[in-house]
Amino acid sequence: MLTKKLALSPDRCFSPEPVQRRLAHQFFDSISALPLVCPHGHVDPALLANPAARFGSPTELFIIPDHYLLRMLYSRGIPLQALGIPTSDGSPAETDHRKIWQLFAEHFYLFQGTPSGLWLKDELTNVFGVDEPLNSRTAGYIYDYLERLLALPEFSPRALFKRFNIEVLCTTDAASDTLENQRSLHEEGFTQIRPTFRPDAVVNLDAPGWRENLTKLESTVGKEISTYATFIKALEERRAFFKKMGATATDQGAATPYTTRLSDQEAEAIFARALTGKLNPGDVENFTGHMFMEMARMSVEDGLVMQMHCGVMRNHNPALFETFGSDKGADIPLKIEWTQNLRPLLSAYGNDRRFSLILFGMDESTYSRELAPLAGHYPTILLGPPWWFHDSVNGMERYFNQVMETAGLYNTAGFNDDTRAFVSIPARHNVWRRVACNWLAGLVTRGLVEEEEGYDMARALAYDLAKVAYKLD
Amino acid sequence: MLTKKLALSPDRCFSPEPVQRRLAHQFFDSISALPLVCPHGHVDPALLANPAARFGSPTELFIIPDHYLLRMLYSRGIPLQALGIPTSDGSPAETDHRKIWQLFAEHFYLFQGTPSGLWLKDELTNVFGVDEPLNSRTAGYIYDYLERLLALPEFSPRALFKRFNIEVLCTTDAASDTLENQRSLHEEGFTQIRPTFRPDAVVNLDAPGWRENLTKLESTVGKEISTYATFIKALEERRAFFKKMGATATDQGAATPYTTRLSDQEAEAIFARALTGKLNPGDVENFTGHMFMEMARMSVEDGLVMQMHCGVMRNHNPALFETFGSDKGADIPLKIEWTQNLRPLLSAYGNDRRFSLILFGMDESTYSRELAPLAGHYPTILLGPPWWFHDSVNGMERYFNQVMETAGLYNTAGFNDDTRAFVSIPARHNVWRRVACNWLAGLVTRGLVEEEEGYDMARALAYDLAKVAYKLD
Amino acid sequence: MLTKKLALSPDRCFSPEPVQRRLAHQFFDSISALPLVCPHGHVDPALLANPAARFGSPTELFIIPDHYLLRMLYSRGIPLQALGIPTSDGSPAETDHRKIWQLFAEHFYLFQGTPSGLWLKDELTNVFGVDEPLNSRTAGYIYDYLERLLALPEFSPRALFKRFNIEVLCTTDAASDTLENQRSLHEEGFTQIRPTFRPDAVVNLDAPGWRENLTKLESTVGKEISTYATFIKALEERRAFFKKMGATATDQGAATPYTTRLSDQEAEAIFARALTGKLNPGDVENFTGHMFMEMARMSVEDGLVMQMHCGVMRNHNPALFETFGSDKGADIPLKIEWTQNLRPLLSAYGNDRRFSLILFGMDESTYSRELAPLAGHYPTILLGPPWWFHDSVNGMERYFNQVMETAGLYNTAGFNDDTRAFVSIPARHNVWRRVACNWLAGLVTRGLVEEEEGYDMARALAYDLAKVAYKLD
Prior knowledge:
The structure is a homotrimer.
Chain A: H1 18-31, E1 36-38, H2 45-49, H3 58-62, H4 67-75, H5 97-106, H6 115-127, H7 139-150, H8 157-163, E2 166-170, E3 173-174, H9 180-187, E4 193-194, E5 197-198, H10 200-203, H11 210-221, H12 228-244, E6 249-254, H13 264-276, H14 283-302, E7 305-310, E8 312-313, H15 318-324, E9 332-333, H16 343-349, E10 357-361, H17 365-375, E11 381-383, H18 393-407, H19 425-445, H20 451-469
Parallel strand pairs in A: 1-2, 2-4, 3-5, 6-7, 7-10, 10-11
Antiparallel strand pairs in A: 8-9
Helix pairs in contact in A: 1-19, 1-20, 5-7, 6-19, 14-16, 17-18, 18-19, 19-20
């Protein structure tokens, strides 16, 4: 049992070597007040659109929606029902939020040395002013304290948005989304909340509920989508609308970055088979690969930055998926091949100065082998920051050490928090900024970069690169 | 030529940074007296079962059985015959052990910076009290000195077993093994020596001598095994016997962790083909993949922990294999895919609280990409420590840095020495404990873990995790 | 904008930890005066063969031929035409070298933290005595200064060759090369400039201009090459000639290290199809795989060391290739598999003491998984130093940490600079020597290697290993 006060080390993420640590502090001090640029993430815009919105109980805020926490707790034998996750089979889920919080606190030691542990400690300390470590003894007290705060207007999503000094926040929205929340936010003056066009639910033919997703899209565009040609037209219309609503980027996810150009006839035929629900083997992969090409083509035309997030098997655990649905911590990364898979797309659009492509994957063996060389050659490619499991102290260090020598700093896209956990945003940026400054301090103390350059590079990593990459200037 | 005394640095494996080093020492001091838990290894139980057993000459103890040494010496042009390895073609092997030792000592510099070098220096110093470096000049003197000691009862296997403070030692035994050695050890009170059920020789249809192995199994169970159904029954019987004899785990090795559920008919048909020696393409892989499923099913039923060691091509060098046989240092790792290969097995048993699976591989690119995410989700998966070539200072550091942030400490299985070199056991645990403590000291000095937590984590890594993972409490 | 003087830190590449740094300096001081051994590279021998040769303008020396610089500048949107690269489509390329230099200087910040940046700073400082940082303000002044120096005899290739203290320099030459440059160099006494036999242009049937390359070979050997048998004979003749001209090694590059032994009939049939330009699917891969076997067979017979450079997709960007040709920075690495691909070759020649094979790849995930175990077993395999993108501070540290524990120091081939940028040779060796000494200092300060051993290992890495590996003693 811990006996000390909860205290975040002011030196966290910094090398213990005194000279490097001192310099890391200097770099960090020079950038720590910069606003947060959040060009990719999953915050629900409804949270911000409604001034009366509240986060709910501490359990609703911290535990129930966070698949990072759920997966770890589940991995140590805690049933998701006990964490309040509703089931599709009608088996009862715990509804006593204070009890769920107690269970969580008893297992908080599981997060020792993990990014979730670091973020949570930062949130409790710096957002809410908790000054005791979270454990079974303190759980109840801290729950009550948080519950009180969360009811206050000062802890509403809107209030925290301002307090967090977020300069821009991009949400991620389905192709069929009417963007009502963004519209009302913009009308209130929150123009820094921008949508991102994510058409996975309709371009990946194996997306759960594809037919229903398409129906929603039909409803949004007000037209029947009975052919590939009308499908493409609908997507183009929607992109134009998103752009009008402030979007500067799109995003697509797939298991593999395979790209291929189908003929219109082939694309029509696959789309027709999808509508009848009778796909042939290879149809899904070929259509997704083709739609990467089409989305790139549209990006050339409308200037939206294209993002690809590849290499995850979603819903690896079928039983869990059936009972609890997606996003419960059961997505597992896959190895990826970029060099050959992206070649068709890059041969078509890789030299086009109107095009911009940001790549994300979780196969770190591709950092130095494929991603950095690709970004270090093609004028259209930038590398996204370490994604998901690698959004961590070590993940960032590996990224810096494996990417930067070959890609160069200016072929990277800065940081994005990629989170649906709104309250964790400052903590996540804080880790990135600290690790970046410590890496730069290491370069300077090892004589590889001048100290003056280090300040510029720190600012770029903390702020400038993300704005430039996502055309948010 | 070295002129200094052989001296193991008390700081070995620790960062040169003084604050981190001091803390690493503190953590290490807190756990260095804990008994050794050895839940997986290849020590011959006959060594311990016979009170009169001796290790033989220094060459028989250190060189002839150690494929880590053989491979390195062979790689630098020393024929295995010159190291006393018997040949199948009748070509003469050196029999003068003092001469072999001299040859080894002349090449001991080849092990600079390798784990074998570190272990050997530790063994010579701490087990035998050698205080000079091993080289061509000292070889004869050290040989004579060791030879004298090895004849003494204080240096018998039994005596060292006690001196090493081994709390539990699991051997690895064929499915057909009658476990006579374990039986006599238990009768003498050595109940802490436990068998492990390893059925590779009969479940992998391409195992060398498969038919003979099956005959041995028939002989042990006292029944003909002429069908797949009787084969499964025999394995179940043997598992029950192993469990009665103290086994808490099984182990299986294969080139790939491919898992697949065959129908009983398919399994019967393949097994029948194996008996006639006329396998079809794919039979071996499918049967091994199916037997992974069956072994998991049996583990659910009998509670034995299941281990998988995957991703090695055995006997890569055919000419060497023909002349000298297996385990002479010619096994080479392969890349592995876990995410897709394990899915059938995990879909069937991955959520079953009665099941426990420990994974080992030598493809480090899967640490952060596949293994840590799998262990960080499935309640049934633990990750084994760095295996074989990666049982080294850097191998462990990579493991800690690439696994722990995602899997969390408590989804790992602590350490096991996996060795047939009994005398090296304390040295191997020593390296693990030192590297672990240094890693923890790094986390604390970088503000990522509290110092108090570090002590708990050090103890878990040195002792508790292995006991829990292998149900040795 | 930098305001300080350009100053290379004397501590560059060394750990900031004072004890490790001090020891790294001591190791470095002990080896920094050793001559440079350059057993593999792409320096044009004509540069040295002609005593009147000059490097041309600073732009011709530093920018136009350096695909490391071109790729980074291109990746940030600078057209290759603006850098003076001639086009095949007749579009005009910049010819004002002073203007190109200015453009380069304005973008020199892109090379912060990259090996190119480090080498260039070293070259400007230590070869040319430039004492200001290169940027838009200083560009013109530095250009004029360099232009003056480059016209002087003291800065001729020959003069620098002597000043650089190069003990041996191996060039890389096509199978059809008459080696006239080497011949005249040898006649002048420059016997330390040796050719290397690289037959890619004729053994890889998909090499650009394969038919013309074969015609050149026919012309050199003075015989028609109309069959596979005469082709093999021609290669054997040429190897004998290269050997007579001082060659000690061959080199081959391919996308994959796939090896296979074809029957003479199969080889004849593929070769015949190649002559008619009508290859079947698989012919190219099978023929290259077979020629690896044949080159190994010839190496057994003539004693030339065999090098394999595998795992790069050449000319990934078709549009760029069409306009600007090869070697403009558009080659992208691929993942590689060595364990299974090399097995046929190693089964045939891997134990033959007359054979020696040095392996290079850019898939770092194979360092610890495949390459180090292969080198740590087969007496014929050595590992080449980190190649191309990984010829960098971090690339070397990864190599040392991932290779050495398993392969051992003496199964590696030291350093080679692999460069066509003659003036960068000392800078490249300097980085290697520094990183090696810092790595050794880390081993000693962590108690893993004795200080005395460190001096021997430093010398081996800086000098001895390369000489032994390439039989340059």
